[in-house]
Structures are given as structure tokens and as C-alpha cells.
Amino acid sequence: MKKVKIFALFVAVLTSALMFVFLNSLNDNDKVEKTEVFVATQTIPVETPITQSMFTLTQLPDEAILDGVITDSSLIIGKVANCEIVAGEQIIQSKLLTVGDVNSATLGYTLEPGMRAVTIAVDGVSGIGYMIEPGNHVDIIAQYNHDETAFTKLIVQNVVVLAIDSDLSNDENTTDKDESYSTITLQGTPEQVMEIRFYEYTGRLSAILRSPLDEEIIDLPIKQFETSDET
To answer: In angstroms, rounded to a whole number, what is the distance separating the alpha carbons of residues 8 and 134?
Structure first.
């Protein structure tokens, strides 16, 4: 009987010690530094626009926070997932794209909804001395001949340059980058794209650089002159 009492006492002491350790561990957990971040509430497929219901705010220990995690919901809503985001996963900047951003990784996401991309050939003269950059706004002038008369017409105004050759961004800091280019890709409405393609087929196109502060659309008459006075 005495041995039983001693064993019971030993078990009680051990249980108390374990409980003490457990409670201390809870207190230590309460002291862990945490940060509020956004995580996905559902799996978000690639190329899916993100809505408010797809993510929620939660607290995670600082050591578990990923680089580039987003803590502002306005930086998530309306963005597009460029790869699958699994439910419970922290939402990080590198997995999101902004539609219509000239610095997007692909041309498709650079385009604004409802707009189209069209590429035209340029040289040192029609391409403003190779000084156009992605993000610039330009007008397009068409020069063409018809029935021995030369015409100059402003066909498209204030369209954004999406790419120079295959470069979607002007952030490349390469010293050996070729300063010349042979094409520029523009964003326009379907009607503007049709105008550009029509006059590209019938004549020659030139880009006219606009000020970034100038959004005025002007109405200019077609310029023309006779070319049949050769002797």
C-alpha cells in the first residue's frame, strides 16, 4: 500500500510538472510577434481576376511571413493571378498582374479590356529618331497617294505605346542595348486598329510623339497637293 501511495504521489508531481511546462508554452506562444497578412480563402486559378471574397486577413508569426506579402487589400482587388494561388496561401506581389499596366510581364495583360494591339514598322524618321519608349503616347499620321494627289492625314490620336520591338518595358539597364528599333506596338480600339491597318496598306505611317500631359483630341483637315505637274 505504501508503494502505491508513493507511485501515486510521483504521478501527481509529474502531471503537475507537465501541466506547468504546457502552460508556460502557451504563454510563450502568446508572446510570438505576429503580423496581419492576406491569405487566399479558396484556390484561385491562373488568369482569374481577384475579388474581395477570395481572400481574408489573418495573423501569422513574423518568421512565417513570405517576402513580398501584401498587407493592403486595394493592391489585390482587381488584380489577376499569373499562377495558381492555393487556399490558405499568403498572397504575394509576384503572383499578381495588373491589367493595362505597361510594365506587365506579357503583352496580353498589358492591354486594357476592350482594346487591341497592333504593330507598325518604323525607322529613324517615322519612329522619332528611335526615342519612343513603352508607355509613351503618340499620334499616327498616314501619307498616301491617290489619282496623282498626295495626302497627309492624322488617323489616330493619343494611343499608348505598348512595346518597342519585343521590349514591353523601358526598365532594362543594359549598356549594350541596341538604341534602334524597327517596330512599335500600339494599343487602340478595334476601329483605330482597322484605320491603322488600312492606311498602312495604302501608304506610309509615321508616329508623332505627344506630351504626357496632353490628352486633347483635335480635328485637323487632310492636307493634299498635286503631284501631276511633272514635265
So the answer is: 80
Query: For 144, phi and psi rounded to 5 degrees?
Result: -150, 165
CB atoms within 10 A of CB 225: 9
CA 125 to each of CA 49, 108, 180, 185, 209: distance values in angstroms, whole numbers, following the listed order? 41, 29, 11, 17, 12
Helix (H, G, I), strand (E, B) or coil at 185: strand
Provide the residue count of the chain.
231
Query: Which one has a higher pLDDT value, 174 or 202?
Result: 202
This prediction's pTM: 0.61
Is 213 contained in some domain? yes
Is residue 175 classed as helix, strand or coil in its secondary structure? Answer: coil
How many angstroms separate the CA atoms of 131 and 209, rounded? Answer: 9
Residues 119 and 81 placed together within one structural domain of the fold? no
Number of domains making up the chain: 2
The pLDDT > 90 percentage for the chain reads 25
